[in-house]
Amino acid sequence: MRLIIFGPPGAGKGTQAGLLETRHGITQISTGDILRDAMAQETDLGKKAKSYIDAGELVPDALVRDLSEQAIADEGHDDFVLDGYPRTDQQAEWLTAFLESNDTPLDAVLSMEVPDDVLVRRLSRRRVHEETGETYHLDHDPPPDDVDADLIVQRSDDEPETIQNRLDVYREETEPLAAYYEERGLLVSVDGTGEIEEVFGRVEAALGALDR
Ligand code: AP5
Fold first, then answer.
1. Which of 10, 145, 152, 199 could form a disulfide with 123 if both were Cys (CB 3.0 to 4.6 A apart)?
2. Whose alpha carbon is nearest atom 23 of ligand 1?
């Protein structure tokens, strides 16, 4: 299947895409993860992306286009779920053209619907392991006791002011893409509230109901 998982910061895109990968073999392609890896390795891309990510702004379109298209090509143009791409009109147009040129259209765009107060709570309680990148959540998935607490940090863009900016940027730049995909008959809304497994059940049901 060729999928996009779509929604605001904290909607659970990464969590649900990860489950699609481990349980259904649909590879998660996360532009956020690719950019954070590049930042950790201090590559040219990482150095260029850092100031945007730390401020909760979008990285310029041109910087994410190639890495997304390359990741899709690496998967043989099939069985992928894009997590965090596209986020602008320009990125959506590029993606449509890229997929059409390979005759590999999308099957669906899963839109995760979660109210803002829940998003903020999820993001402000997220923690990451500085070295491994492992993600934890103080409420439902705290770091185990044998993990060095000094290595558990907050993501640079999960500070309260930056979370608010990410939400504002999402509303301005990314949310309008829902209409773009709805017009193409691809948008499937999924209630993203509740327990992770409950949400995943809805994701599976939505995909199972696709008549494609
Ligand atoms: P990215 O890493 O993609 O961040 P994001 O879209 O803001 O998404 P998040 O990872 O914060 O949230 P999510 O929806 O994946 O939720 P998650 O599953 O992690 O991008 C970071 C930055 O990179 C961007 O701001 C931008 O600068 C840049 N960038 C990336 N792509 C770009 C692009 N295409 N163009 C330009 N710039 C780009 O869950 C969040 C937390 O909630 C976790 O702790 C999780 O455990 C918890 N949680 C999840 N589901 C539940 C649940 N059901 N119940 C309780 N807790 C839950």
1. 10
2. 32
Contact predicate 68/31, CB 8 Å: yes
The 2-6 sheet, strands edge to edge? 27-30, 80-83, 2-6, 108-113, 187-191
pTM beyond 0.85: yes
pLDDT in tens, 164-203: 999 999 999 999 999 999 999 999 999 999 999 999 999 9
User: In angstroms, what is the span from residue 110 Cα to ligand 1's centroid?
Assistant: 15
Q: What is the mean pLDDT of residues 33-37?
A: 94
9 Cα: distance to centroid of ligand 1 (angstroms): 5
Give the pocket of ligand 1 (CB within 6 Å): 7, 9-15, 31-32, 35, 52-53, 56-59, 64, 84-85, 87, 91, 122-123, 126, 135, 137, 140-141, 157, 166, 195-196, 199
**Quick one: 2-114+175-210 is in which CATH superfamily?**
P-loop containing nucleotide triphosphate hydrolases (3.40.50.300)
Out of 2, 65, 87, 127, pick the active-site residue.
87
DSSP E strand boundaries for 11-90: 27-30, 80-83
